[in-house]
Specification:
Layout lengths: L5 H21 L3 H20 L6 H24 L8 H20 L5 H7 L16 H21 L2 H18 L6 H26 L9 H9 L5 E8 L2 H8 L1 H15 L7 E6 L2 E7 L3 H17 L1 E3 L11 H10 L3 E3 L2 E7 L7 H17 L5 E2 L1
Parallel strand pairs: 6-7
Antiparallel strand pairs: 1-3, 1-6, 2-3, 4-5
Length: 379
């Protein structure tokens, strides 16, 4: 880096951390705020203590503490719920970070050589990964934390959890290259950018995806309708007798029914794209397809939903749909519930020259399906 830009290189990491922090605060993502605070403290410690002029005892203590506490914090944040920033939960998380700073300072005291020896103790002899400045305990913490955050993402599929796992990896690379000029700051900045992108992706998901069913929501549907070509078919689907089902079995069962229907509708064939329209209504768009081409796939979808039986247990939990499990439930006399959907479909043409007109025509066809007895496809 040119000498004239050295100051920029030093402060750019702080700027990126601050920008990511502003984004996280704006979208009320407290977990990311504290992850960024952890990375900011790590970079400040690097600039202050991990320098040639600092006594080696302090360098080793601070670096060893960073290799333990930074990945631990990111992994722990992937396991806790989002609870915001400025509240008692945020105060508790801040207290944990402050306690870690105290422990790092304690490890750096002249009389704590035993603690520093523990931090740099060898877990395995003849390490296969080659030379690295990171102590083996720190390597174990980084790998374990990345696995924990990765598993958390796999369970939740949250962009923030994936970003936290990425933050662990970025810190691991930064720690490995701590002796290379600018590398530590560059990869901490990369970790901050990953976390900021995770916040933006999670916010996009909240805006465009229905939280209950996981399907794209009304806003995503409106944007997709605006971008359709000249030829397409649109289907409107409605869960039959849903209000009565809610009144009889409760809203928990109603939610399970909507999830069940959504999971089947999302797998519609023929190039169909599923959306939640609102309430118990869903929309399927078939770009480049006619009504005649879309109708067989809708009929197959209707039959699949009608043929599925959901177990009614104490928790109203939906079964996994395995035939053996359904048969065992029937043998044991456990109550089951089946649902049906009515479907109306319409296609673009000379009379229906806008997506809004096609949606209205499909909605009218849906009501015809209901008038004819429900559980059918109408055009």
């Amino acid at each position: 880096m040119p000498a004239a830009l050295t100051a920029l290189g030093v402060h750019a990491t702080y700027g990126i951390l601050a920008l990511a922090g502003i984004v996280s605060l704006a979208f009320r993502r407290g977990r990311v705020v504290f992850a960024l605070l952890t990375l900011a403290i790590a970079y400040a410690a690097y600039r202050r203590y991990l320098q040639p002029a600092v006594p080696q005892d302090i360098v080793f203590a601070v670096f060893g503490a960073l290799c333990l506490f930074v990945p631990f914090n990111l992994a722990a944040l992937s396991l806790v719920r989002e609870r915001g920033t400025f509240n008692r939960h945020g105060l508790l998380r801040l207290a944990v970070i402050a306690l870690q700073a105290v422990l790092a300072a304690w490890a750096a005291l002249p009389g704590n050589s035993a603690t520093r020896e523990w931090l740099y103790a060898s877990l395995v002899s003849h390490a296969p990964w080659g030379a690295t400045a990171v102590p083996q305990i720190g390597l174990a913490a980084i790998v374990l934390s990345a696995l924990v955050a990765g598993i958390a993402w796999y369970r939740t599929r949250s962009a923030v959890d994936l970003a936290l796992a990425g933050g662990v990896v970025a810190f691991g690379i930064a720690a490995h290259g701590v002796t290379t000029p600018n590398m530590f700051g560059a990869f901490l900045a990369a970790g901050a950018l990953i976390l900021a992108i995770g916040v933006l992706q999670d916010t996009f998901r909240m805006a465009f995806r229905d939280e209950l069913t996981g399907l794209p929501g009304r806003r995503a549907l409106n944007e997709r309708l605006a971008g359709l070509g000249p030829h397409y078919a649109i289907a409107m689907l409605d869960v039959d007798h849903f209000k009565s089902l809610n009144d009889t079995h409760g809203h928990d069962v109603g939610d399970q029914v909507l999830k069940l229907a959504a999971s089947r509708i999302a797998r519609v064939r023929g190039g169909g794209e599923a959306y939640r329209f609102g309430g118990e209504e869903f929309t399927v768009i078939f770009p480049g397809r006619s009504v005649e081409e879309a109708a067989p796939h809708l009929e197959a979808l209707r039959e699949e939903i009608a043929g599925y039986r959901m177990e009614m247990r104490h928790s109203a939990r939906e079964s996994q749909g395995k035939p053996g499990k359904q048969q065992r439930a029937a043998r044991k006399g456990e109550p089951t519930l089946s649902v049906t959907v009515s479907i109306g479909v319409a296609g673009s043409g000379s009379r229906l020259d806008t997506p809004e007109a096609v949606v209205q025509a499909a909605d009218k066809a849906l009501y015809r399906a209901k008038d004819k007895g429900r559980n059918r496809v109408s055009r």
